Every structure is written in C-alpha cells, then in structure tokens.
Amino acid sequence: xxxxxxxxxxxxxxxxxxxxxxxxxxxxxxxxxxxxxxxxxxxxxxxxxxxxxxxxxxxxxxxxxxxxxxxxxxxxxxxxxxxxxxxxxxxxxxxxxxxxxxxxxxxxxxxxxxxxxxxxxxxxxxxxxxxxxxxxxxxxxxxxxxxxxxxxxxxxxxxxxxxxxxxxxxxxxxxxxxxxxxxxxxxxxxxxxxxxxxxxxxxxxxxxxxxxxxxxxxxxxxxxxxxxxxxxxxxxxxxxxxxxxxxxxxxxxxxxxxxxxxxxxxxxxxxxxxxxxxxxxxxxxxxxxxxxxxxxxxxxxxxxxxxxxxxxxxxxxxxx
Length: 320
Prior knowledge:
Strand order of the largest sheet: 2-1-3-4
Oligomer: single chain
CATH class of the domain at 165-298: Alpha Beta
Helix content: 40-55%
Strand content: 5-15%
Shape: globular
Order of helices and strands: EHHHEHEHEHEHHEHEHEH
Distance between the termini: 11 Å
Radius of gyration: 20 Å
Number of helices: 11
CATH topology of the domain at 165-298: Rossmann fold
Number of strands: 8
CATH architecture of the domain at 165-298: 3-Layer(aba) Sandwich
Structural class: alpha/beta
C-alpha cells in the first residue's frame, strides 16, 4: 500500500504584491469572519484587506518582502519523506495551504493524480481550533467528496497532537539550547506565546486553549520546572474579546517588575512566519527594550528540526 501525507498550514504572501489578495482570502474564511451570508462576508473581507494592505506590506517588507512559510513547509515535507526512507518506507508527501499557494485544491489535485492508496492529512497546527485545523478540514472534506477517485483511498485525519512526546521533546530541546545562552539560565522567565483566538470560540467548545496549556505544562515538566513561566497570546485581530493576557502586555509588565531575562517560546507556531519574524523579533523586542528588559531572546520555530520531523513521522505511523 502506497502511503501519502498531506501537510497543510495557513500560508502566507510570498511577495508584497501578494499581501492584499492573501488578506482577502484570510478574512473571507467563515471561521475567521463569522458572517453566514457570503456576499456580506466577502465585502467585509475586501474592506479589511484594503485597509490593512499598506500596514501589512510594511511588516512583510521588514522580514524580507514576503513570508517564508511555503518554503519552510516544503522543506518539512521533504524532510518527512526522507525520515520515512530511513525507516524503510516509501511515503509521498504533499503540501497545501489554506490561504495561499499551493492552495488545498492544488494539493488535492496532485494527490488525485498520484498512486497513493492511503492518505494521512496532517495539519501543522499542534492545537486544534476551528479557525485553523477545523477550517482546513472543512475545505478538504468538500474537495475530497467531489472526487470519486478518493472513494478507493483510505483517508485518515490527524486532529491535534498537543501532548505528543516527540513534539514536547523538540520544544524542550530548543528551549534548553537558548537558556544556556543566558548568564543565569534558572532565573530566566519563560514566556510561552500562542496565537490568540476569540474567547467566544473557547466558550463554545473550541479545545485550543486547554490543548495549548497542556503543551506548556508538559514542556515545563521536561525542563524540570526550574524557571518561572507563563502563557500569553499574540496576533489579535478585530474588536471582539480575544484570549488574554496579550504577550505585549506581559512583556511590559515584566519589565516594570525589573525582570532582566525573558525567553519567548512560540508554542503554537512550528514554522517561522510573520508572527515570529516580525511580531516577536522586531515589534516585541523593541517593546522589551523600552520596558527595560536587558536580555530578550526568542526560541526559534521548529521548522525542520530532526526531533520534530521524527515526531511527525511517529504521528503518521500511529495514525495508520
């Protein structure tokens, strides 16, 4: 049986010209803007994309003119295929994105033309939310249901992996490496930063918050709980109430308390993109300096870290 794995992520604009159409697709998602009537939702998405275009272009310009997410995800896919080769298995990997190229429909077209008999759909979101994994699953199910060839294929869906030991090991390994760069590693305040979602989603049963907390606590168990730590949230969009405390507010508060050493861990981001490269590395670093934080560092995203890639392979194998 030939196995295929579809890795999917959000996606990001690869050039400054891509920013506005990317934003439009992002805010057209009914799980992001919860307006049932599609014409109104799309009109609002167009308005938001138009208003945010210049600001967002400025952010992407500061990180090189575009998002590296496609390149990094394709590298993860190749690394995963190579990992399976070392295990004596021939696994074909595919990449799809929710809001930019290669789109999910492009990935499904590619899978349809392939010779895979069994497919594992693997979201690169460790923690399930309707805004990410749920939204991607909804699109994929519609795409797959339209294609009769998939009736012969066994399709497995990985919903989340917040407590997978390999995933936790990969985070803890990277944290230890960064802690060693501080003069007093045990005194460093570890700040786990996750992408925020509207509070109403959690009240309605979205497991994202609890799953994120699980990853944080398991990681601290791995580290021996020698450091003070907390969980905060970033990347709020829109006027509704989002999960708090915000990472920016926590950094400012820690500075006021005289905390000199802060290590930020992008707990919900497995690849570098705008939220890590601009928001954490540029915007929040400047905020930390202004707040009087002497040593502000950030743990790199996992990208194609070998421990993380082995964890993904384990997840696929256990799903099969």
